[in-house]
């Protein structure tokens, strides 16, 4: 899975209290992808 695909999936994850996605809220600082894992910060 590519970095951009992971970011697109994360755009569908919403903070339930305010209804904004976690990417737009700048809660995802970094996405690293290698052959076996994805690391989110």
Automatic annotation (TrEMBL):
Pfam families, per database record: FeS_assembly_P
- Out of the domains of life, which is the source? Archaea
Which parts of the sequence belong to the MIP18 family-like domain? Answer: 3-38
Q: Which Gene3D superfamilies match?
A: Fe-S cluster assembly (FSCA) (3.30.300.130)
- Record-given protein name: MIP18 family-like domain-containing protein
Protein source organism: Candidatus Marsarchaeota G1 archaeon OSP_C
């Amino acid at each position: 899975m590519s970095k951009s695909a992971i970011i697109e999936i994360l755009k569908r994850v919403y903070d339930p209290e305010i209804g904004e996605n976690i990417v737009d809220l700048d809660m995802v600082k970094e996405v690293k992808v290698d052959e076996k894992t994805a690391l989110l910060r």
